[in-house]
Amino acid sequence: MTVVTVGIDIGSLATKVVLLKDGTILDYVIERSRHSFKERAKELVDEMLQKQGLVMKDVSSILGTGYGRHSIKDIYGQAPVTEITAHAKGVNYFIPNAKTVIDMGGQDTKVILLGKGGKVLDFQMNDKCAAGTGRFLEVMAKTLDVELDYLGDLDAKSTKEVTISSTCTVFAESEVISLIASGESKPNIIHGLHRAIASRVNGMVRRMGVIPDVVFCGGVAKNQGMVRALEKELSSKIHLPKDPQITGALGSAIIAAERLPPGN
Amino acid sequence: MAADDTNHQMWEKLGIDLAKHDQLLGVLPTIYKQVYVDSQQNRPKGMGFFEFVIGDVHGIRIKELVQAKADGKMIVGTFCLYVPDEIIVALDGVSIGLCGGTNFSNYAIEGVLPTNTCALIKSALGFGFGKICPYYAIADILVGETTCDGKKKAWEVLAKNKAVYVMETPQLKGRTQARTHFIDELKALVKQLEDVSGKRLTAEKLRDAMEKISKKRAQLRRVYETRKANPPPISGKDSLLVSQIAFYDDPDRQIEMVGKLADECEERVGKGEGVVPKDTKRILLSGTPQAVPNWKLHDIVETSGGVIVCEETCTGTRYFESTYELKGDTVDELLERIADRYLGINCACFSPNTARTDDIVRLAREYNVDGVLLYTLSFCDPYQYEAVSLENDLKKAGIKVLSINTDYASEDAGQIKTRVEAFLETLQ
């Protein structure tokens, strides 16, 4: 019997939906989160089902994860799963040998130690502020007047090491402004920002050890400059899932299927 | 006259800032209802008494203290369980724990304390400086101790506005000279409190007080003992409230009411009746004290599908676990018993403090926990240092650990909830 499940990862900046059919990704979408997490999620799910010629009753289970996970409990009616457990499952789907997962999302960074089958053995998560996360890079891109998506390409053009001493969004912004004022090139500043984040993540990873394969996921993993900075800082190859931004939604779709009673 | 008006008159006489105090009392019931009433079911009926006490936190008990004072009894405010309440009780005094568990009072210490001060000290001093705590106001004397650096310096600040006596607690308690010194300090405390109370300490009075306080501790131990059951008959939140109230309520009444609660919990265990479903993930919380109304972490854990079954904290096992024999014919002999009991408590203020690791490992086994939550308040150096080494030691012992460093503000509640939920998921 065919099993169709949907995983929804409601991040602070982006909402991701994955449609899984018998263990294969049928479709997925990544869109900006909106003020109403719940309505946004429902809208994206409905659109995807329609596109795939499916109706709600074809779906066995829908499971939410991410920052907004509790907001959709009442429409899809099951206890959500945290993005930590979900990313672990999703990463394991793409890269079965993954042991250390670095997930850099909109407002937090997590380091997860994986066991067999994508089980979470241990994890670290940054404290309350958004230092060195997707939001941090978004603010810096704005300050530098460059598109977020170009940060990786611009980083590749850097010619020297510029040190940014803070990963606090507010302090780093003023550092960036003074670097601009002193005539420093944008690529060099961007490279400095990536290194500052990498150094911060390194501190979290070291608490559990750099155990290969090291996988980088979350929206920030699409930034090649960040990938290179992490590889250098951790002295380890960084593996990327096929689409690093959907591992949370994928993981929750997989968990949704696993949670189904046998015979379903 | 309505109770409300008499309370206001009473507070006014104590010099309370009525406007601010009204604001404080306006906030508390909302928090209590949300944390205790709306999110819990099937609580022991015996919690009714504690609910009443916390609901009237600055009412009836303060009235009792006003009366006690009129009857010539001294009121002593304390901030740490190392200040022996048996000595205060033996001198016919009343001991009141004054630690603060909310950042409501922070406005009052701006410019008085450095920013990087732990939330507990900020809160406690804020209540005093802001004149919003009648317990603080009614105390004849405050007894501080030289435990952590923050507190040591806080007494100097506090002394500007209230009579403060500081008792020296040793830093390296394993040494024989530390014991000798601590006994001398207890004697000096006795002398000080004799002066304040105008009464003399006798061996008989001290032994009676030791017996009374021992009975109170024994009842708290009984409640904790029932939490070893699966499912536990009482939530972590409720147990925490019971310990918190034990710091300021009348010991005789506590013996009776905590005793009744323990009876009920034992009965529930006998019937297999739990406050949560069987096999709910069991958490041991270990770390810094949790003063009223700091229920933040307990609330997060217990609304995320876990249950706290034991607290290795000053508002938990450290408060009542250790005992002493009621032997001794002289005050000095009894003070030795007291000294040995207190020096056996493993607080992070001491160095080295490896026995605390042993305590946690033992409690984790006794309470059959699924994981340990190491809880530290921001800027609490001693517990933060120990949390780092404990995390490694406990993991080596095969115990799952989550470390949380936070304060009284709610801004990080969402992040902490994610971490706690993920931690509970790893325990599946």
SSE layout and pairings?
The complex is a heterodimer of chains A (264) and B (428).
Chain A: E1 4-10, E2 14-21, E3 24-32, H1 37-51, E4 61-65, H2 73-76, H3 83-94, E5 100-104, E6 109-114, E7 120-125, H4 134-144, H5 151-156, H6 169-181, H7 186-206, E8 214-217, H8 224-234, E9 238-239, H9 247-259
Parallel strand pairs in A: 1-4, 5-8, 8-9
Antiparallel strand pairs in A: 1-2, 2-3, 5-6, 6-7
Helix pairs in contact in A: 3-9, 4-6, 7-8
Chain B: H1 3-13, H2 18-38, H3 47-55, H4 60-70, E1 75-78, H5 85-90, E2 94-97, H6 119-129, H7 134-138, E3 141-145, H8 149-158, E4 164-167, H9 176-197, H10 203-226, H11 236-246, H12 251-270, E5 281-287, H13 296-302, E6 306-312, H14 317-320, H15 331-343, H16 355-366, E7 371-377, H17 381-396, E8 401-406, H18 413-426
Parallel strand pairs in B: 1-2, 1-3, 3-4, 5-6, 5-7, 7-8
Spell out the key features of this protein.
heterodimer, A: about 260 residues, alpha/beta, Nucleotidyltransferase, domain 5, 2 domains, five-stranded mixed β-sheet, four-stranded mixed β-sheet, globular, B: about 425 residues, four-stranded parallel β-sheet, 8 strands, about 55% helix
- Anisotropy-based shape of chain B: globular
User: Largest sheet of chain A, described in full?
Assistant: 5 strands, mixed
Poorly predicted runs of 5 or more residues of chain B: none
- Annotated CATH topology of the largest domain in chain A: Nucleotidyltransferase, domain 5
What does this 3D model show about the protein?
The complex is a heterodimer of chains A (264) and B (428). Chain A is α/β, with parallel strands linked by helices. Chain A folds into two domains: 4-85 and 247-258, Nucleotidyltransferase, domain 5 (2-Layer Sandwich); 97-240, Nucleotidyltransferase, domain 5. In chain A, 40% of the residues lie in helices and 20% in strands. Chain A contains nine helices and nine strands. Chain A has helices at 37-51, 73-76, 83-94, 134-144, 151-156, 169-181, 186-206, 224-234, 247-259, and strands at residues 4-10, 14-21, 24-32, 61-65, 100-104, 109-114, 120-125, 214-217, 238-239. In chain A, the strands form two sheets. Chain A has a five-stranded mixed sheet with strand order 7-6-5-8-9. Chain A has a four-stranded mixed sheet with strand order 3-2-1-4. In chain A, a hairpin with a 3-residue loop joins strand 1 (4-10) and strand 2 (14-21). The longest helix of chain A has 21 residues, at 186-206. By secondary structure, chain B is of the alpha/beta class. Chain B contains 18 helices and eight strands. Chain B has helices at residues 3-13, 18-38, 47-55, 60-70, 85-90, 119-129, 134-138, 149-158, 176-197, 203-226, 236-246, 251-270, 296-302, 317-320, 331-343, 355-366, 381-396, 413-426; strands at 75-78, 94-97, 141-145, 164-167, 281-287, 306-312, 371-377, 401-406. Chain B has a four-stranded parallel sheet, sandwiched between helices. Chain B has a four-stranded parallel sheet with strand order 6-5-7-8, sandwiched between helices. In chain B, strand 1 (75-78), helix 5 and strand 2 form a beta-alpha-beta unit. The model of chain B has no long low-confidence stretch (mean pLDDT 96). The chains are: A alpha/beta (264), B alpha/beta (428). The A-B interface holds A 67, 79, 81-85, 108, 119-123, 125, 127-128 and B 305, 395, 405, 411-412, 414-415, 418-419, 421-422, 425-426.
